[in-house]
Design a protein that fits this description.
With about 90 residues, the chain is an alpha+beta fold. It has one domain: Roll (Ubiquitin-like (UB roll)). Helix content is about 15%, strand content about 25%. It contains two helices and five strands. The chain has a five-stranded mixed sheet with strand order 2-1-5-3-4, covered by helices on one side. Strand 3 and strand 4 form a beta hairpin. The longest helix is centred in the middle third of the chain and has 11 residues, at about 30-40. The termini are far apart.
């Protein structure tokens, strides 16, 4: 099944400038692996050495944070939208 993945600005250099890509996958983990196959370098920015989504990277499926679902095992269906949102910190 194909899902739409929204790519944040800092990672668009790895997708040839595309802000959205279509990727096949049955769950979030497969999407990340298939993103890596299509756009090398993305997985290391999204996942830690153990393969888990990094603390400072938020992944949403249809506006729901996968941390409150099943993480990398979160199931996807055709037409779902996955958003990758880097965490922002700072301020006074």
């Amino acid at each position: 099944m194909s899902v739409s993945v929204r790519i944040p600005t800092p990672l668009r250099k790895l997708t040839g400038g595309a802000d959205e890509v279509s990727i096949e996958g049955a769950n979030v983990g497969e999407i990340i692996d298939n993103l890596e196959a299509a756009h090398p370098g993305l997985k290391e920015r999204l996942c830690d050495e153990a393969g888990e989504i990094r603390r400072f990277v938020n992944v949403y499926v249809n506006d729901e944070d996968v941390r409150f679902l099943e993480g990398r095992a979160t199931a996807l269906k055709d037409g779902d939208e996955v958003s990758i949102v880097p965490a922002i910190a700072g301020g006074c």
